[in-house]
Amino acid sequence: MAGGNVHRGGSFAAGTELRSFGLTHFQYNDGDHIGMALALASLFPIFMIVMEVTIVLSRREIAGLLLLTGQLLNEGFNLVLKQIIREERPYLHLGDGYGMPSSHAQFMGFFVMFSAMYLEHQIATNVVQKRVVQMGAVVLGVLVAASRVYLGYHTFQQVLAGVANAYWTRRSPNGS
């Protein structure tokens, strides 16, 4: 078709402001390669929730269900805390809602702690392999936490509070 774009979806009222779907909308300074890499790292929690749901549906193992349930309960706890604390983000134009505590940091903190404890108590493999996987999880968690501060979505204190909440809500797979 000549003459421009054709939209075959819902209707748009003239003069209405469009809103982007914010689930994967991260901003970084143009030309900042570190910012771009950290913006991508901020997507890890989304990838991980898809992975967790896939594991639960395909393998039907209790550990996957515990991890997914823990992550979802942690997100709910985070939302409640945000409504109680009501601390703004450092830059109001970045992100929706309150910034304290960081849900990304809390999500990754819970994942790191759950993974470390699960490997320690439930997986029979050599110690070196366990430590390599545990350190990989820590690196992912640190990248996500750092991305939130570097990109201006949270303060260091908001990220630290998210990790602290994850630590507080942790439970090992064997109940300890």
TrEMBL record:
Q: Residue limits of the Phosphatidic acid phosphatase type 2/haloperoxidase domain?
A: 63-174
Q: How does it sit in the membrane?
A: Multi-pass membrane protein
Principal cellular location given in the protein's record:
endoplasmic reticulum
At the top of the EC hierarchy, this enzyme's class is hydrolase
Report the superkingdom from the record.
Eukaryota
Q: InterPro entries per the record? A: Dolichyldiphosphatase_PAP2 (IPR039667), PAP2/HPO (IPR000326), PAP2/HPO_sf (IPR036938)
Catalytically driven reaction(s): a di-trans,poly-cis-dolichyl diphosphate + H2O = a di-trans,poly-cis-dolichyl phosphate + phosphate + H(+)
> Where does this polypeptide localize?
Endoplasmic reticulum membrane; Membrane
Ranges in a coiled coil: none
Q: Which UniProt keywords apply?
A: Endoplasmic reticulum, Hydrolase, Membrane, Transmembrane, Transmembrane helix
GO process annotations (BP) = lipid biosynthetic process; protein N-linked glycosylation
TM ranges are: 34-55, 62-81, 101-120, 132-151
Among the GO molecular function terms of this UniProt record, one is: dolichyldiphosphatase activity
SMART domains per UniProt: acidPPc (SM00014)
Q: Which CDD domains match?
A: PAP2_dolichyldiphosphatase (cd03382)
Q: Name one Pfam family in it.
A: PAP2
EC number(s) per entry = 3.6.1.43
| Similarity-based family | Belongs to the dolichyldiphosphatase family.
Name of protein: Dolichyldiphosphatase
